[in-house]
Design goal:
The protein has 3 domains: about 10-110 and about 190-470, Glycosidases (TIM Barrel), CATH 3.20.20; about 115-175, Oligo-1,6-glucosidase, domain 2 (Alpha-Beta Complex); about 490-555, Golgi alpha-mannosidase II (Immunoglobulin-like), CATH 2.60.40.1180. Helix content is about 25%, strand content about 15%. It contains 14 helices and 22 strands. Strands 11-10-9-5-2-1-13-12 form an 8-stranded parallel beta sheet. A 5-stranded antiparallel beta sheet has the order 14-15-16-20-18, covered by helices on one side. It has a 3-stranded antiparallel beta sheet with strand order 6-8-7, with no helix packed on it. Strand 7 and strand 8 form a beta hairpin. Residues about 555-563 have low confidence and may be disordered. It binds alpha-D-glucopyranose. Pfam families: Alpha-amylase.
Length: about 575
């Protein structure tokens, strides 16, 4: 019998979580944009896939200057996506299928259309309304220079000059992302209070957790000093806007909110930090429950680098008692099959690039092996919509259709992130591939490639060699296998450039990153393989899950009963 994690109080420790980029998941309304009705209609697909929770990228009312990460009102669903009542229905319908819901909270900034920012613009310099943000006079004789040299994550300066109510140039305001995303001042008590209320608002509606956007960036040095971008950040020196110690107090108070529910809600941080020890500080028992493991995501497809990343991850999580997470992709990152099909298989957020020669067949083989690797590692795992269909990055979106501010603010030098956000293909042989209903009035908001008919969910359904089938099988086994998900792991001896590890006494995962077929350890059964294992050997760029009735402490251990 399958055992969905719905009754497990600490479900986040081992869950398989599926990221829904709502705008591109399924369009029931026919306007070319995904919506909540589309997700509701596809819940059976998600239940069948076998995921434990859904993380929805922001669905709140928003001008969509950054795909919804510019929130105008946390308590409303954008009409493009649906209504609040519909979100509540979606949360409860998903739960009926054993699937929890995680919503996305964006505390670093709001949309410039948010009522607070509008009030701040109107109220003028020195007003209490402006104190919720970072308004400062400019430098230079006429205030024509930005208050400091900070850069926006999306390119260009992190400051924009505002216009006073009388039409003259006024103070500057800080935005670490797009100008439509003014940064909040987290030293302000109302900013803290409001976010705790927003957490309760969604927890009261059944959300089982929140994903916290840009979680290490909220607090700024109030002196707003210039930053030296050309040198390595000195060890031990506080950074002016990243990973500041004051953040921990904020998350401790969020934890009190999360723990006040009879079924505690999970706090999941989006934390990009190169130092794993600093990263783990956010996961102390009274702070966040888990955080995305971007170190692993950025890791190249290389046995020693992966082994090192996995071991370091587990070593830094252990002292704080938090589960690790494993992520290969999300809505900000080059699609896995494309990334793994290139000469350089790692990921550097600062250097997203298109047009590099890509061997998609190789990338897909590696992505299949990586799926079995991540789903077997201890902790929770995140799956980004379309990964289960092996969708590649779309690299030829016409410039006039690209929406990502990262593309526009870098003058096109950075191709941006729309290539991994293209609407999903569900069925059929031509766009919109069932993404929008027959008779839709508009094309999908981003154009879909013409050669995706073999990648649709319908085309892959029932095909024993498809990525979809591999994910379905793997997730099913993962759910039924007590040793998978949360728990310990142990490296096994293996041939060079082969990763092999044991989960419990009866389960082993082997991944071959060498260029020669590798022998398999002793096993009684192959539970799942990426592909054929001719002659009992594991081909390069393949992985396998094994039942291992092996010796433990010198005794032969019987395999668990099937089912
Ligand atoms: C996070 C999101 C990204 C967004 C940014 C600003 O990194 O994942 O999509 O652009 O925050 O909110």
């Amino acid at each position: 019998m399958e055992t969905p994690t719905v009754h497990e109080p600490q479900w986040w420790r081992g869950a398989a979580i599926y990221q829904v980029y709502v705008r591109s998941f399924a369009d029931a309304g026919g306007d070319g944009v995904g919506d909540l009705a589309g997700v509701r209609a596809r819940l059976p697909y998600l239940a069948d896939l076998g995921v434990d929770a859904l993380w929805f990228t922001p669905w709140y009312s928003s001008p969509l200057a950054d795909g919804g990460y510019d929130v105008a009102d946390y308590r409303e669903i954008d009409p493009m996506f649906g209504t609040l009542a519909e979100a509540e229905k979606l949360i409860s319908e998903a739960l009926d299928l054993g699937i929890r819901t995680i919503v996305d909270i964006v505390p670093n900034h709001v949309s410039s259309a948010h009522v607070w920012f509008q009030q701040a613009l109107e109220a003028g310099s020195g007003s209490p309304e402006r104190a919720r943000f970072w308004f400062r006079p400019g430098r230079g004789e006429h205030g024509e220079l930005a208050p400091n040299n900070w850069r926006s994550q999306f390119g260009g300066p992190a400051w924009t000059r505002s216009t006073d109510p009388d039409g003259t140039p006024g103070e500057w305001y800080l935005h670490r992302f797009a100008p439509e995303q003014p940064d909040l001042n987290w030293a302000h008590p109302e900013v803290r209070q409001e976010h705790e209320d927003v957490l309760r608002f969604w927890f009261d509606r059944g959300a089982a957790g929140v994903r916290i956007d840009s979680a290490a960036e909220l607090v700024k040095d109030p002196a707003l000093p210039d930053y030296d971008y050309d040198s390595a950040h000195p060890d031990g020196e506080p950074h002016p806007y990243n990973d500041r110690d004051e953040l921990h107090d904020i998350y401790r108070s969020w934890r009190v909110v999360a723990d006040s529910y009879p079924q505690p809600r999970a706090l999941i941080g989006e934390i990009w930090l190169p130092d794993p020890e600093r990263f783990a500080r956010y996961l102390r028992p009274d702070e966040l429950h888990t955080a995305f493991n971007f170190g692993f995501l950025a890791c190249p497809w290389d046995a020693e680098a992966l082994r090192e990343s996995i071991s370091t991850t587990l070593a830094v999580h252990a002292p704080v008692g938090a589960p690790a997470t494993w992520v290969l992709a999300n809505h900000d990152i080059t699609r896995t099959v494309t990334r793994y099909g290139r000469e350089s298989t790692g990921f550097d957020f600062a250097a997203k690039a298109h047009g590099i020669p890509t061997d998609l067949a190789l990338g897909t083989r590696r992505a299949r092996a990586a799926a079995l690797l991540t789903l077997a590692l201890p902790g929770s795992v995140y799956l980004y919509q379309g990964e289960e269909l092996a969708l590649p990055e779309v690299e030829d979106i016409p410039a006039d259709r690209i929406e990502d501010p990262m593309y526009h603010r870098t003058g096109g030098t950075d191709p941006g992130r729309d290539g991994c956000r293209v609407p999903l293909p569900w069925n059929g042989s031509a766009p919109p591939y069932g993404f929008s209903p027959a008779g839709a009035t508009a094309e999908p908001w981003l154009p879909q490639p013409l050669d995706w008919s073999a990648l649709t969910a319908a085309a892959q359904d029932g095909d024993s060699d498809s990525m979809l089938t591999l994910y379905r099988r793997a997730l099913r086994i993962r759910r039924n296998e007590p040793a998978l998900g949360d728990g310990p792991m142990e490296w096994m001896e293996s041939a060079p450039l082969v990763l092999a590890f044991r989960r419990g006494p009866h389960f082993a995962c082997v991944v071959n990153l060498s260029d020669a077929p590798a022998p398999l350890p002793e096993h009684s059964d192959v539970l799942l393989a990426c592909g054929p294992t001719p002659g009992g050997l594991l081909p390069p760029d393949a992985a396998v899950w094994l039942r291992t009735p092996l010796v433990e402490h010198g005794a032969q251990v019987a395999p668990p009963r099937a089912g």
